[in-house]
Every structure is written in C-alpha cells, then in structure tokens.
Amino acid sequence: MQAVLEHSPPAGATARTTKRTGFLLLSPSVLILLVWSIVPLIMTLWYSLQNYNLVDPTLHGFAGIDNYWYLLTDPDFLHALLNTLVLVAGVLVISIGGATLLAVLYDQEFFGRGIARIMVISPFFIMPTVSALLWKNLMLHPIYGVYSAMMRAVGLTPIDWLARFPLMTVMMIVAWEWLPFAVLILLTAVQSLDGEQREAARMDGAGPIARFRYIILPHLGRAISVVVMIETIYLLTIFAEISVTTAGGPGVASTNLAYLIYSRALLQFDVGGASAGGVVAIVIANIVAIFLVRAVARNLEA
Amino acid sequence: MATVELKNLRKTYLTEEIIKGISLSIEEHEFVVFVGPSGCGKSTLLRMIAGLEDITSGDLLIDGQRVNDVEPGKRGLAMVFQSYALYPHMNVYKNMEFGLKLSGMPEAERRAKIENVARTLQLEPYLNHKPGQLSGGQRQRVAIGRAIVRNPKVFLFDEPLSNLDAALRGQMRVELSALHRKLGATTIYVTHDQVEAMTMADKIVVLQKGVVEQIGSPLELYHHPRNLFVARFIGSPPMNFFSAIFQGGDAAGSSVQLRDGSTLYVPVTSPGLLPGTKVTVGIRPEHVELASSGPNSGVVEVIERLGAITLVHVRMPDGEIIVVQTDGAVLTDVNSPISLTLPPRNCHLFAPDGLAFEACHRHPLAA
C-alpha cells in the first residue's frame, strides 16, 4: 500500500502527460474542422453586412442591416419560408404515416416478403437529382410520362403536375425518397416489439386496431421521433429536387429558403443579400434544432 | 370458476406433429401443472388453450362449451407470461386497466376493482410507476394483478417464475399458492421446475414429446410413477436404475435377481412376464441405505455435502453408479468401500417396455 502511495505522484504526472499528448494529437483535426466551419460563418456574416454584387462592382461598401432589411421585407422571403415549412411538414407526414403502415404490413409473414422489402427500401439508394429527373421526365411528363399515359388510357386529360401543383409535386418526390428511410427505421422498431406483449394484448381482448393504437404506436414513439429529427435536418435544405424539376417556379411557388439563397447568390449575383439569407437560414435551422433535440431527448429518456 | 376439457387435442406445424392427441379434464378450482423437459410441448399446449395457437384437431371445452374458434380475449382466460409482457409505456394502473377498458367496463367499477387487487398484491404504492421502474418480483405481481382484475374463469401461467432469482422464486411460489387458495380459481401452470410442480399442484400432467406420460397428484407421481420417464423426471436427485432378471412373482410381490446374484423380493404385481426377462429396478437416492458390510458393495467415488444431506456416489462392481442420499453428518471418505441396502418396499420395477409394475400397496399419501 505504502509503495503504491509513493508511486502515485509520477503516475499522476504520466496521466497529465498522456492527456496533453492526446490534446496535441487531436488538435490538427479539431483546428481544421474549426477553420472549416468558423471561417465560412464569419465570412458569411461579414458579406451579409456589405453591399456586394458581382455584376455591379461600383456598388460596394458597408451596408449595415440593409441586406437583412431588404430580405425580411421581401414577399419572396416569406413565401420561401412558408414553402420550407410546408415542404418539411408535408414530407414528414407522408413519409412517417406511410412508413408506419408499411412497417406493420412488412412485419407480417407473406409470400415474397424479402423481395418486397428490398423494393420498398431501394428508392433510398437513388441520388436526389436522378430521382427528381426520373419523376419529372419518366413519370410526370405531361406528354410522355407514365401517369399521363395512364390518365389518357382511362380518358382523362393529363395534368402538367410540375406546373399546376409545383410544391405538392416536389413534396411528393421528396417523400418518395424519404419513405424508405422511415420504413427501415420503423420496421426494425416494430420487429423489436416483444411478441408476448402483443399476445398479452390479445388475451386482454384487443383486436388488430386496438393493438396498433395502444401497443404498436406507443412502442414506435421513440423511433418516430428519431426519424422526425433526422428527416427535418435534411428536409430544411432540400435543393436538388427543386433545382432539377421546377427551378423554384413558377414564380416562387416552389422556392424554399435554400433555393432562394442560391438564386440570390448565383442567379442574381447578390452576394450580400444571399449571405443575409444564409444567416437567417442558420438562425431558423438552429431554432428548429433546439426544439427538436429537446423533444427527442425527452422522448428518449422516458 | 370453470372446468376445462381437452379432447384428443392435436397440433401440427407444417408436417411435424407437436401435440399428439392429448385428452385431459380439469375440475373447478383445480391447480394443474404441466411439466416436462424443454420441447415437450407444454407451452404449446397452454398457448392452444389460451387461443394463441390454432388447434389442428380435437376439441377444447371451457365450461362445457367448445371454444376452438373463439378469440383469445373472449375465452374468459387470463395469462401470465414468462417475460411478464407488461405494456412498458403504461403505468401499473393502466396496465391492469387495459383489458377492463377494452371490455367496456365503466370507469368507477374499473377503479374499484384495480384498487382492490392492488391492495391484495401490495401494489398500491406503485400504481403510478411504469414497469421499467419496478423490480422483477414487483413486475411479476403486476402481471398477476393484470390477470386477476379481469376475473377470468381460468388462469394460465407460462413459466412465470423462471426469470426470478432463487430466493424470490421460493417466495413467489408460496404467494401464488396462497393466492390460489384465496381465489380458488381454476389454474393451469406450465413449468419445467419440478419443485414448483410438486409444491403447488393439485394435479400434475407430465408431458414428453407431445404425449401425456402420466396424470396424477404430486405424491402419486413420486410414489407410483407409471413408467421409466416419469420415474426419472420426478424427484431430485433422479432415481437410480439398474438392470435385473425377473424370476417370478405371486400375489404379494415379484422377485428379481440382481447382477451380483442376490435376489430382491419387491411388493409389486408382475404383469404376466416370463421368468428370465430383463427388467429395470429403480430406487430413489433417499431410499437407499448405507451399510458397512453386506451384499451390494461398491466404492465411494464422489461425495457431495450439502449441509443437511450428503449425496454419496457409489461405483458398483459392474461399473454402474448408484447415488445415495444420506445424513449430512455421515463419515465416509472417497475411495472407501461401502455396502448398500435396498429396502424392497421402496423399489420400483419396470418392464422392458418401460411401464412400471403395479404396486401391491398404494402409498397412504398417494391414494
């Protein structure tokens, strides 16, 4: 015991040295990550306070809050904000609602279940740009799209979906892409439900609907909140699908915040205005993230 | 309270027959235990009664009514599962309330019932707890409470104590017996633990490979096993077996010749066997007596001292091992020679087909 006590100070020193070495070894990657995220953030903040338009070099200098003022009073901005929320909420509802039902369905035994599962997962492996193009040209095209052919076959007039219901169509495409992810998570969750619990519910006289409502849905609560969080983070920044299908139009009918910033910066070359949009987007994303993380954390603790 | 009757019940999975025609009748208030090694079909049989498994053929009658095609929730049964199967997102109160709520019982009545049961099971302080906050024994009680509040005709238990530690298992066993005495409900209980079977049952059903080996009271099974399987399965440590030659019998008993040449006159009737037939002699470790000299001598190979009792494993000259349960303070050493006395009244004889010879006198406790 005595010997151990006598040896302890050097041991502590070793621990300190080890800790310092650890910090030193970690620092390059931490530094790079810091530079990677902090420098663009500071540059964005700086540009957002500047008059800076690539096509008009004569207009420059400090702009104060003008960029923010123009952005926040621009009806397009409010429209884009609303579109963003509608898009996120709509895709969440469709993908999670559909996935919950599919997960329960795919949990049953039926012939060809393995193949059916692979097929329901497969949209997730397709790049957003590719799937948007597929939907636009192969499925929804008013002249040679599959849906148009189907509608003509039963005597209806084909609809130009992307022109008539641009936001709904984009929502549908994105939901199609995200449904597999939700199915994957929720299916594993359904399968982790203890079989004896379902049987106990049957013994308690619960039919299929009561079992779904009182046993399966509560069991899925956590998994659903995780899906909501992950999907929201990605859905706030939908870009490829809009760019490929509608380019935000007609007008700003399908422009969300990410696309608005893009169009300001790279279509109108207004670096200052786009940066202001970027800062607003960061603020909104963080507000959403705080609420979500809290809600999910509470759900996970319970 | 109700009777349950099984008439030639069969269950086939794909092509394999799991339950091979079981007939059984369970009286009102009776506590029936299904025992058997794992894979014998005891749980399947219980689940068929519960309605969680389809019945391939045969009839299941509860209170004289055929319920083969009745939904599990409508058979008037309640089941306690091995994993308890409590609903994790509901508190104790809601767990017990779920079935009552689905049956459309009014709120006030539900509350009165649940509080009454909670009082009986000492669950009152935990009504607002979620199952995750309870210990194993408390969860077990909630599962039992959930079964009791529904006031079922028959209670079904599927190895309910196997997830508890030994001390708690002993305690819950006593509590369950007391509860059964109090409620007087018809109960079917599945276990692989013969202590549970022996202590709780009015009637034990020993199953093997989907077939009933014997039905009887615990002591009937212990004193008068119908065949080799039951003799081996009931009793711990298991019965000793060794072969012998049947010599002949009369009304008072049958005599057999043991390997060492000595004869044993056992008070069992011989079922028309020819002298010279090879039979099996069985005797429980607690009935063999140690002697310092005499016939049946062997060498002590292993001694297990359990405090109150000692198990002595004796290697006989023909290589067989006979286990003797004796006093805890017995002074015997490994490798020392020893003789065994086999009291004939405690010996069992088994014919080549495994069936036991009928005893001339029934044991008073197993009438």
From TrEMBL, chain A:
Naming one, the record's GO cellular component terms include: plasma membrane
What InterPro entries would the database entry show?
MetI-like (IPR000515), MetI-like_sf (IPR035906)
Indicate where this protein resides in the cell.
Answer: Cell membrane
Which UniProt keywords are listed?
Cell membrane, Membrane, Transmembrane, Transmembrane helix, Transport
Q: Does the keyword DNA repair apply?
A: no
Query: Where do the ABC transmembrane type-1 domain residues begin and end?
Result: 81-292
Membrane topology field: Multi-pass membrane protein
The membrane-spanning stretches of this chain are: 23-49, 77-106, 118-135, 170-193, 214-236, 274-297
Spell out the Pfam families in the cross-references: BPD_transp_1 (PF00528)
**UniProt record, GO biological process:** transmembrane transport
Gene3D superfamilies from the xrefs? Answer: MetI-like
Question: What's the domain of life for this entry?
Answer: Bacteria
Any keyword tRNA processing? no
Name the protein family.
Belongs to the binding-protein-dependent transport system permease family.
What name has this protein been given in UniProt? Sugar ABC transporter permease
Organism per entry: Gluconobacter sphaericus NBRC 12467
* Origin organism lineage: Bacteria, Pseudomonadati, Pseudomonadota, Alphaproteobacteria, Acetobacterales
From TrEMBL, chain B:
CDD domains, per the entry: ABC_MalK_N
Name the family. Answer: Belongs to the ABC transporter superfamily.
Q: From the UniProt record, which GO molecular function terms apply?
A: ABC-type maltose transporter activity; ATP binding; ATP hydrolysis activity
Keyword field: ATP-binding, Nucleotide-binding, Transport
The keyword Nucleotide-binding is assigned to this record: yes
Q: Does the keyword ATP-binding apply?
A: yes
Q: Which InterPro entries match?
A: AAA+_ATPase, ABC_transporter-like_ATP-bd, ABC_transporter-like_CS, ABC_transpr_MalK-like, ABC_transpr_MalK/UgpC-like, Mo/tungstate-bd_C_term_dom, NA-bd_OB-fold, P-loop_NTPase
A single GO CC term for this protein reads:
maltose transport complex
Question: By what name is this protein known?
Answer: Sugar ABC transporter ATP-binding protein
The record's annotation in PROSITE patterns points to:
ABC_TRANSPORTER_1, ABC_TRANSPORTER_2
Q: Which domain of life is it from?
A: Bacteria
